[in-house]
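Kindly inspect this chain:
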Amino acid sequence: MTKQFLLTVVFFLFAFSLLCAQGKDAEKPVMKNYFIVFLKKGPIRNQDSLEVEKLQLAHLYNISKLHAEGKLIVAGPFLDDGDFRGIFIFDVPTLEEVRKLVETDPAIISGRLSYEVHPWMTQQGTCFK
């Protein structure tokens, strides 16, 4: 199921970038690299409801901070109740920086969430800065 899910997400992102590119005048597309982070259920999910609420608020604050810094362009949850919980798209130069930034997230630190990172590219100027 995981492989099928990832293929579906990659297809969606490809289609999304093509739709965003429609109507753009570009003779020769310039590609730009990003990093996609899949947030998954972590190994420690036994927090009580009050702790979960605190972690969620801290998680959202961290997302807002990274977005304000211009490093995180897209973030959002998946709406089903599967193992994949959400997605981040980062605009930073290296995998090491992505890992460092993701590991500032309180939900990651607590073990409530885990993550995997994938390099990704799309045509520059299509959907993101």
About this structure: The CA atoms of residues 40 and 85 lie 5 Å apart. The chain has a mean pLDDT of 87. The chain has one domain: 2-123.
